[in-house]
Fold this sequence. Notes:
This protein is an alpha/beta fold. It is 31% helix and 21% strand. It has eight helices and nine strands. A hairpin with a 5-residue loop joins strand 8 and strand 9. Helix 2 packs across helix 8. The radius of gyration is 19 Å and the shape is globular.
Amino acid sequence: MARLTKKQKEAAAKIEKGKLYSVDEASALIKEITSTKFDASIDLAVRLGVDPRKANQMVRGVVSLPHGTGKDMKVLALVTPDKEAEAKEAGADYVGLDEYLDKIKSGWTDVDVIITMPSVMGKLGPLGRVLGPRGLMPNPKTGTVTMDVAKAVTEVKAGKIDFKVDKTGIVHAAIGKASFSADKIAGNANELLQTLMKLKPTTAKGTYVKSIFMSSTMSPSVAVDPKIG
């Protein structure tokens, strides 16, 4: 095992072993134990009592974080010419269609979110093997396939994120930056947790939220009380 640095040991020492922290406590503690020179990302990992292999237990959704993500999301709007001005005015970083489809075919994926229209989805099908593994394939369920392109771009820029339970039953989501106040981190965390509770599948049996861990880039994880969360 790699040896812990002095800072990592100091950070780990501040976490009470076996304690489940409230969201507010965890948000304050994560700021205290984050010592990176860059503005670290704050992440939440929520283990759910679902079987993602069953379609009726797949938990997927979107949430608008009240305090944004702290990240300047790069948005590509794949739209027809009549929607280009709308997308640009809303703040899309890249706007167009065929030229960007060609770039993606060549391996270009330097964006965080792709927004498109229902009529364009047919052209994106062949690019699934490039976009799918990177989580970039637009989906009506996450609001990234829509005729209201301007609204979709504005929401993403303001802090709307989509999430999906992975094959191990865990939802991972970036909920802010270390430069955020503890109140803002907690506000974003609570918004995500409340959204997950609303998405509980009726077929899920037993405990729904099994565990919650908050961490920042290179910090130890802080266990959050799932009953409080």
